[in-house]
Amino acid sequence: MEQSSLNDAFWILIVGMITVFIILWLVVLTGNLIIKFVNRFVPETEGSKRVTKASALSNGTSAAISAAVSIITNGKGKVTKITKV
């Protein structure tokens, strides 16, 4: 009787693990197919691009950022572009 219970538990474990593996495989496959479909047939819309003016920063702020970069990099770094994150 003890051996029969262990056999039943083992087979339930195996069937459950195989079922979960198959379902997860189907989820991944479906996701990849949806991604490929969307990339192929749905046109990409361009979002509104914000144009920032170079004069948006004051000279003092720009100088402070340049000085901080110079101090941190021991004079080896150079600020070429400042963008808001």
Question: Strand count, sense and closure of the main sheet?
Answer: none
The string of secondary-structure elements, in order, is HH
Shape: elongated
Q: Helical amount among residues, as a percent range?
A: 55-70%
Given helix and strand content, the structural type is mainly alpha
Number of H- or I-type helical stretches:
2
What's this entry about, in short?
With 85 residues, the chain is mostly helical. The chain folds into two domains: 1-43; 52-85, no CATH class. 64% of the residues lie in helices and 0% in strands.
Verbal overview:
With 85 residues, the chain is mostly helical. The protein has 2 domains: 1-43; 52-85, no CATH class. Helix content is 64%, strand content 0%. It has 2 helices and no strands. The chain has helices spanning 2-41, 59-72. The protein is elongated. The model has no long low-confidence stretch (mean pLDDT 86).
